[in-house]
Amino acid sequence: MLNVSRRLIVIGAAVLAMWQAPVLAAEVCAVDDTGKEVCLEQPAKRIAALSPGATELVWAAGAGENVVAVVSFSDYPEAATKVPSVGSHTRMDLERLMELQPDLVIGWVTGNPPEQLEALADLGLPVFSIEPRTFEAVSHTIERLATLAGTEEEGFAEAERFRQGIARLEIKYRDADPVPVFYQVWDEPLMTVNDEHLIGKVITLCGGVNVFGDLDRLVPRISPEAVIGANPEAILAGGMGEENRHWLTRWEAFPGIEATAKDNLYFIPPSLVQRPTPRMLEGSQLFCRKLDNARAKR
C-alpha cells in the first residue's frame, strides 16, 4: 500500500506540474451538476469518462478522440471499446487512471463513489460531475462538455439535433390517448422508475401514464403483486443485453394483466433509454411506437 501511495503522489505531482506550465489558449469554464464551476487553462485534450453514459456524451460533444480512459460497459460508440478501461464506475483503479494523465475527469454524481472522485480532486485533477435528469439537461450537458473540450461547433450542433428531435415528439404525442405503462428497469430485485426519472419522462413524452410514477424514489423496488394490482396496459422492459427480452417472460404467466392479455409486452434495448445520451431520441421514438401498437389494439 505504501508503494502505491508513493506512486500516486509522484504521478499527482507530475499532473500538477503539467497544469502549472504556461499555456497560450484561453481559459474555459463550465458549471457541473453539483453546482461547482470547473475551469481549465486550456481545452481538455486527455479526458477520463467514468461512466458509459459519460463516454457517449463526450463523443456526442465531438471530443471522442480526446478520451484516454473509460470504465467497463463503455461500449458505444465502437471506438470507445478500444480505449483503456480503469475498472468499473463503482471501483476504479486510481493508480492506473493517474498513469494515463487525464486533464479532465467526467464523473457521475450518483454513480461514482464520492470518496474516489474526492481522491482524484485531491490529486489535482479537475473533476466535472454530471447527471442529466431531463431532455434539456442532456443537450446542456453536451454543450458544457464541448465547451470544456473546445469542440463547440460539433457539440452544440448535436445538442440542438437532440433538442429538436425531442420537440417533434412532444408535438406529435401531446394529445395522444393515455396508455397505463409499467417500465421494468431491473429484474432481481424487481425495480421500476418514477415520473422524475428520465425514463419516466420518456413515458410521459409518448403519452403514457407511469403506473408507479408517484412513488418517492427515482428507482423504487416493487413486488410482482404491485404490478398485478396496477394492471398496466403495456409493459416495457430493457433486460440484460441489447437483444435479451427474457425479463418479459415472467409476465406471460399472468394473463389477468391487461398488458399480457393484449400481448403488449415490449422489449426496449436498454442502452437506448437507460443512458442519458442523444441515443435517447432513438429510444424515445421506439418507445412511442410501442405505445402506438398498444393503442391500435383497443
Based on the model shown, name its key terms:
298 residues, alpha/beta, Rossmann fold, four-stranded parallel beta sheet, signal, Cobalmin ABC transporter substrate-binding protein, ABC_transptr_periplasmic_BD, Vit_B12_bind_prot
Describe the structure.
With 298 residues, the chain is α/β, with parallel strands linked by helices. The protein has 2 domains: 161 residues, 3-Layer(aba) Sandwich (Rossmann fold); 121 residues, Rossmann fold (3-Layer(aba) Sandwich), CATH 3.40.50. Helix content is 39%, strand content 13%. The chain is built from 10 helices and 10 strands. The strands form 3 sheets. Strands 4-3-5-6 form a 4-stranded parallel beta sheet, sandwiched between helices. Helix 9 links the parallel strand 9 and strand 10. It is elongated, with a radius of gyration of 21 Å. About 4% of the residues have low confidence. It comes from Marinobacter lipolyticus SM19. Keywords: Signal.
Structural class: alpha/beta
Topology pattern, helix = H, strand = E: HEEEHEHEHEHHEHEHEHEH
Specify the CATH class of the largest domain: Alpha Beta
Arithmetic mean pLDDT: 91
Number of strands: 10
Give the distance, in angstroms, between the N- and C-terminal Cα atoms.
Answer: 65 Å
Biggest sheet details: 4 strands, parallel
Poorly predicted spans: 13-24
Helical coverage, percent range: 25-40%
In short:
The protein is an alpha/beta fold and 298 residues long.
